[in-house]
Amino acid sequence: MTLADTSSRAGTVFKSLAAAAGVVLGAYLVWGLRSLIVPVAVGGLVAYICRPVVARLERSRVPRGVAIALLLFVFVLGALFIVNRIRAVMPSDTGALELRIRALYTLNERYQALMGLDRSLTRGNRIYRWVYGDLDPLVDRVRQLLALTPEEHAQFVASRPRGAPAAGPDRLVEYHRANVDTLEQRARTALAEPATRSTVRPPGAPPPTSVGQTPLAALGDIVSTWIISPLVFLFLLRDTGEIKRGLLRAVPNRLFEPALNVLADLDRALGDYMRGLFLECCLLGVTVGLFLTIIGVPLRWTIAIGIFTGASNVVPYMGFAAALLSGLAYALLAEDIRPLLPMVSSENFAIWVIVAVALAELLKNVVYEPVVLGGAVNLHPLVVVIGVLGGATLFGPVGMLLAIPTITVAKVLVSSTTRQLKAYGLI
Amino acid sequence: MFGPVPDTAVAEKRRSLVDFLKQVTLFEDLSRRDLRRLARIVHERDYHDSEYICQEGQPGAALFVVRRGLVEVVRRGSSSTEVPLAMREPPASSEESAATGTESVRWFSARARGPVPLLALGKSDLDALSVNFPPLANKVLMKLAGIMAIRFQILLDAQYLKESGEHPEATP
Question: Is the CB of residue B117 less than 8 Å away from at least one CB of chain A?
Fold first, then answer.
């Protein structure tokens, strides 16, 4: 073996070790900084969506800095609008108490009607006999969340008008009384049952308190983590190609052109996906809002549900779940609905919510996705499901959010790199 | 690679790059504002002596502009030996068809003679320019088409002269 051979082998071993150390260090850093992944990704992805807008403004002779400032201004206005909308639908302290009383009453009524429960709340129809072991503890838990504490009870009583109201008995007081009766009944049942069957707590008992961060500390944590998001957004939007050129500078000359093509493919795939997804989220939000308005949900609630649905749709299948849950939550609380369709009534309202959301989802799958997203993702549905579940298992909500873009990037990276290396005779 | 560079150094470098781009035939009609925009997207590459810039038989993805030094254009002959065709010197450009995305395979190789800094403009860069700044991309593409037409004309003349019995200099 010659000296040159030994030197070449040592060089290869050194490079392999350096690459392995790099991979381990990279993985360690990703794991250590995983709390920053979502803010960085969100900032980066929003910048990606906004890049064409800035370019368009720049084309109209608006300096890049001014274009970014304008965009930020629009974002701030949008955020203020959303906060105002949320504030508009957020009830006051007393309103929240009334909402909980109404929700608990409706829940008890509907649960009793559906399960055919008697006055003792222990005997019901056949459905009840099948599912009571699983459903009763769940419903009891929801009841506990909605039930008023002694302080809240006192606040509620104080908030009611004194004396007999002219318009008849106070409906909310009656609801509250019925709720207390139900809770007492369930508490009595719970005493007579094995401890495992029910988790009910007597009415008036304080709810279990969780030991954790104070709200201010939690807010501080969120702000300190998310402060990076606007910085990444600004940095990436301000970039006019330095990052790409920096990456390509590190590439050897013989790989320059293949790398240029791979980066272009990645840019195209990610750009198409992000812009398509953004448009699809907007369309789904508007569709859900429109359909819910048609079946009688008030406009201020449909706007809130539409925004929530659109934002959730970033994670596959989550938009549908968000629309269904929020629609059904409204159906649970709704007392007076004003549907545009004559066949919708308060009795079958929940079914119409399901129909409306299912129709919106169908429209998304059949029209929006093929037209808007097109071949931008082109992943098998099974890959999407496994990717999202795998991402959730490994990284929680972060993994769910980033699963599809990551799979898309990995797929394009592998296929484009292989194609380019073959075309340039490097493999 | 991403280390901070003092602003004045960056500005100075960009200014000299813009001045150089102004001398390139392909970009001579562009305004200073357009040249500054172009300077933000071109890639600066350094090649050492005898290193191949592009190779015969490979697809092209970028056009190159010689910034300093000499580039030799060669073609493999029948006995697999390289036949020199031409020498390129600053501010010559080559491989225009690659930037227009004609998916053509290169019929010649280009090799650095001594250390050669080059500027590269990728097809993808030109695509992005077409989306973001169509008037600028149009000017570049029109000029590219003009240069390619002239080269085609020269090749036709050369072929005609060759058939007439004379020996013209090849121009890739």
Answer: no
Q: How far apart are CA A19 and CA A24, in angstroms?
A: 9
Contacts of B120 in chain A (CB under 8 A): 256, 260
Enumerate the domain spans of chain A: 33-159+171-203+224-241, 251-427
Q: Which of A381, A382, A404, A380 is nearest to A392 (CA)?
A: A404
Categorize the per-residue pLDDT at A122 as very low, low, confident or very high, splitting at 50, 70 and 90: confident
In the structure, what pLDDT confidence band is assigned to residue A248 with cuts at 50, 70 and 90? very high
Least Cα separation, residue A250 to chain B (angstroms): 7
Four-residue CA torsion sign, A144, A149, A153, A155:
negative
Task: Give the per-residue pLDDT at A202.
Answer: 54
Question: Does B168 lie at the interface with A, CB-CB under 8 angstroms?
Answer: no
Q: Tell me which architecture the domain covering B42-163 has in CATH.
A: Sandwich (2.60)
Q: Please report the ipTM that was assigned to this predicted complex.
A: 0.85
Q: Which residue has the higher pLDDT, A379 or B85?
A: B85
The reported pLDDT for the residue numbered A201 is 54
- For residue A249, list chain B residues with Cβ-Cβ distance below 8 A: 1, 43-44
Residue A296 corresponds to which tokens in the numbers above? Answer: 């009688």
- B39-68 confidence digits (pLDDT tens): 989 999 999 999 999 999 889 899 999 999
Q: Cβ contacts (< 8 Å) between B122 and chain A: which residues?
A: 257, 260, 264
* pLDDT value for B1: 41
Average pLDDT over residues A407-422: 92
Q: Residues of chain A whose C-beta is under 8 A from some C-beta in B?
A: 52, 55, 58-59, 240-241, 243, 245-246, 248-250, 253-254, 256-258, 260-261, 263-264, 267, 423-425
Neighbours of A218 (CB within 10 A): 11
Nearest to A424 among B45, B51, B58 (CB): B58
Q: Are A188 and A207 in contact (CB under 8 A)?
A: no
**Chain A partners of B132 at a C-beta cutoff of 8 Å?**
52, 55, 58-59
Residue B61 class from Cβ within 10 Å (0-12 exposed, 13-18 middle, 19+ buried)? buried
| Residues 6 or more apart in contact with residue A311 via CB below 8 angstroms | A281, A285, A322
Report helix, strand and coil shares of chain A as percent, to nearest 5.
Answer: 75, 0, 25
Nearest one of A301, A367, A362, A310 to A335, comparing CA atoms: A301
Mean residue pLDDT of chain A comes to 83
Contact A260 B61 (CB under 8 A): yes
- What whole-number percentage of chain A has pLDDT above 90? 19
Model confidence band, residue B106 (pLDDT cutoffs 50, 70, 90): confident
Residues B129-145 pLDDT 10s:
888 888 999 999 999 99
Q: Looking at chain B, which residue has its C-alpha nearest residue A241?
A: B41
